[in-house]
Design brief:
heterodimer; A: two-stranded antiparallel sheet; 8 helices; B: mainly alpha; AhpD-like; 2 domains; 0% strand
Amino acid sequence: MSAATVVVTGPIAEAVAAGELPGRVWLYSNYHCNLACSYCLTESSPHSERRQLSAETMLAVATQARQLGFSALGVTGGEPMLLPWLPETVAAMSEHLPIVLLTNGTLFVGDRIARARPLAGDGIAVQISLDSDQADVNDMARGPDNFAKVVDAVPRLVALGVRVRIATTTAGPLDDPALDPLRQLVTSLGVDAEDHLVRPIVRRGRADERDLGVTARAQDIPSELTITADGAFWGSFGPTVRSGRLDTDLLLTRTVLPLSVPANALLAAVRGLPPGTDANLGIR
Amino acid sequence: MARVELLDAASAPLLAQAYFADGDPGPIVAALATVPELLGPTLGFVGAALGDGAVSTRHKEFAILRTSVLQGCRYCVHAHTAVALDAGLSVDEVRALRGEVPIEVGFPDDAERALIGWIDAMAGATGPVLDDVWTAARARWLAHELVELTVTIGATMFLNRLATGLELPSSTDAVDRLDRMGLA
């Protein structure tokens, strides 16, 4: 029987199938970053402690996630592409489950685009942040030359066969007509309109310190199991950092493997909280 | 100042929040909450080992306070001096268990002295426990009572090392109370 046809059963698989648990498992590959965005949830910067997962751990999470019945993976940071082995690891993980890799897109300059080759093909999407069609506006939050590097990298990634998604983080309404020029820019870069996500700034981490974004309770945040070097959390917005201190309010377990330990803790937490929805806040 | 962050209600992990619902749960819970998957099993075990059982509260407190003294745990000695007094032990008995007066002064009863001998052998020494200590205790206590008290001693030693190693702070209220009684 091929991997694609294995029927997974068990409480996690049933909860995912019933929509009680989201299907995606997130991994924070690392916390350091070549940028220092103003709304960063994790206070990531070039000076941040790396706190990285090993390639072996990431592959084990991918393997066990599939065995438990999860349906998708995501890798974020920090800037994952700062890890030399990351593209090959993501490609290996995609053999287990579809995966989206979040990157700031600034590390594909010139010949370094070749590092993206393992990311081309089915089962992998590369999600790059772009917040405005105006370079100065975008770069105010994300750092000098960010806009230029992203609009340079995206068409070349698309030409390489990489599926690119664009994520826009905004302090304004998610359907703001002022974002229309950005939507047009995104499609002109070769990205499908359906692959352009617009989401709010979540008031955690550095955003909270700078008085930015929407306040979110646990039930406002998608309860996607999120694995980090510090443990497992409720949602990819869980392992935030403010003033150098890791937020623990959405910590599930320090144990990350076997993945059944945090997965079962997440299920218990989901069942213990009042019903909620992220639909109003649009957090994703 | 503890060596680790002591979580509060705002920073308590999701599955630990119930322990903070009625106010400050104390530094042991606040420290354990940093590893939330340990909290439930640990508190379940400790609660069963130190809480109500077949052995009286008085004699459980013998085990807890005496063990804490022998292990040199300031936090637990403070906490359980107060608990022992609340459980009805006299100040003289507490002083004897704390080693401030001879055991014979505080405890004229042979059975209680034999029990303290068992506690001393378990928590105050390493290696095998001599047969005569067991025999003396067993002559006056049922086997299951000694099993229960031995579990209490072991759980207390765990708490002693946890509180000492992490430098958990004593409750200000407990220290003030003991200070007024000359027991701080």
